[in-house]
Amino acid sequence: MPPLSSIPRPEDTDPALExxxxxxxxLQATGLLETPDxxxxxxxxxxxxxxxxxxxxxxxxVDSERQWHKSRVGLSARELPRSVAFxxxxxxxxxxxxxxxTLLDERFAHNPLVTGELGVRFYAGAPLVLPGGQALGALxxxxxxxxxxxxxxxxxxxxxxxxxxxxxxxxxxxxxINEITSLYNRAQLVQDLTSLCNQTPGEMRTLVLLDVIRDxxxxxxxxxxxxxPLEAGLRDVVAHLMQALGPQVQxxxxxETRFAYLLPEGSAQAQEQAVLRxxxxxxxxxxxxxVVLDLYLVAGLTRFRLDAESAGDVLRRATxxxxxxxxxxxxxxxxxxxxxxxxxxxxxLLRGLTQGLAEGEFRLVYQPQFEVRHQRFSGVEALIRxxxxxxxxxxxxxxxxxxxxxxxIHLLTEWVLHTALAQLAEWNRQGLQMTLAINVSAxxxxxxxxxxxxRNAIALHGVAAQQLHIECTxxxxxxxxxxxxxxxxxxxxxxxxxxxxxxxxxxxxxxxxGLPAEMLKLDQSxxxxxxxxxxxxxxLRTIISLGQRLGxxxxxxxxxxxxxxxxxxxxxxxxxQGYFLAYPMEAGEVAPFFAARAAAAPGxxxxxxxxxxHANSPAQPPVWRPD
Length: 627
Description:
Layout (H helix, E strand, L loop, with lengths): L17 H12 L9 H13 L4 E7 L3 E8 L5 E3 L5 H4 L6 E3 L12 H4 L6 E8 L5 E9 L7 H23 L10 E2 H14 L4 E8 L3 H11 L1 H19 L5 E5 L2 E7 L3 H20 L10 E8 L2 H21 L3 E3 L2 H22 L3 E10 L4 E13 L3 E3 L1 H8 L4 H22 L5 E5 L2 H5 L3 H12 L6 E6 H4 L3 H12 L3 E7 L16 E4 L1 H4 L6 H16 L3 E5 L4 H10 L3 E3 L7 E2 H13 L10 H6 L12
Parallel strand pairs: 7-9, 11-12, 14-16, 16-17, 17-18, 18-19, 19-20, 20-21
Antiparallel strand pairs: 1-2, 1-6, 2-3, 4-5, 5-6, 8-10, 8-11, 9-10, 13-14, 13-21, 13-22, 14-15
Helix pairs in contact: 2-5, 7-8, 8-9, 11-12, 11-13, 13-15
């Protein structure tokens, strides 16, 4: 298909040429130009050739500068210049054009197709006219000998042209109808938006994108009752939607459980009420029905102008608004550029992650961990940092959650693993023995080769497995047998497993028995309030006591004052970390820090209180406080 830029713009054309512009737009909208041969069209040209005993039969599409042959019998050329094409004249009328002897017709007597090697002496063509009146091309037959062509034959050629038009209609709808609901799909919506931009440019419309079922509910229902009842339920949804919208509104099946429709220009309030009426109609229709679907209705609305740029982006904007409505638990949300900024930023960060790893934008910092029993710093936790060339310092809280939804988490975790172990090996060579904790995600533990990746990395960097601690959340550890088997395999290698953020997930007391871990890392939300909240202090002591009796080591994070340090130490925590003890620091600062603390007198291992810590902190503050 030639680019749209090859079509004359309205401001560049004479008003008399406007029908031709509309005809070219209609031709390109069919999507037939430059498509492969099709049996549906070829059968018709073969039939025409046999019926009329004609050596050449063609289905032609007359483009702006050429005649392109969708189907051909007896002619090898795929296209001809429009200036010499007989069908250029055929499309000027709705009737069959017959030239019984080309040498006797002044329009064609000197045509290269007549005087040249092809030697055309006879032509008959029936125009292919769309319901809107645009002639796309013709079904034509040609011969090297003059001949007559009566009215019956003209009617037969028109009948065959009607079959070609039916095939065009079939080709256009193929892939544009949802097989379950028989509604036009997203591809047709996009095509219709393009047509509206041509027909009524500049007018305002509102696109409504309505989701009717939560994705997780849909998947659970498929597992429980199968696909067929759900498909029947979706057809019921469509029936009620069409009833609520009325015959004047075209409904589209935009994706699995999402439907779209357009509202004409109007006030925002009126359009909101229209959307709410549709939602209430569906809710009422399904409240007492025996349909198995549990409807969850949310909608994204976006107002846009009918031009190519706006229409091309409208589905994305409606989708963005729909997701926001779902997050806010609201019936509908209007699209606003501001609400879209965060999503676009997240997408840009994901796209830039691989390049960022290659170009050194990522680094690790290390937060020391203090061993209470021996009153010494004995290990560090590796924390990732990203200094983005455009966005500056990006919080791990912002990008980790996004990366965990993609396969990029494996690439990122392997980078962290190798970077941290290479640094641990360097500290070992310096005579600094310590443990190193790194965080992994659920997707890492679900990967069948993760344990092998760990084993190979440890061997490559020549560190002891006992030096490495793997941290994952309690929710991850309890998600399934496969994950627990991977954790057991990791423990069998000699690594310790620590359950991070313990106490804020869905772990209950019975889960404390048999967890696939040696260490429980108490979340800072449990630790930080204990100095002024007796219930929090009682809860923390209870958890520590239970953990100890069941054989776990306890780690407290979020220790930011001397008082909290004293309390968690008294309660029996084995390890502590937090800003009171040490900020996360660059790799080059770790060895001097450990050396200075090893030489420090008792009671001078860390600052006296948080105020002094902040007063004496380095000129460069920590990149991000841990969550």
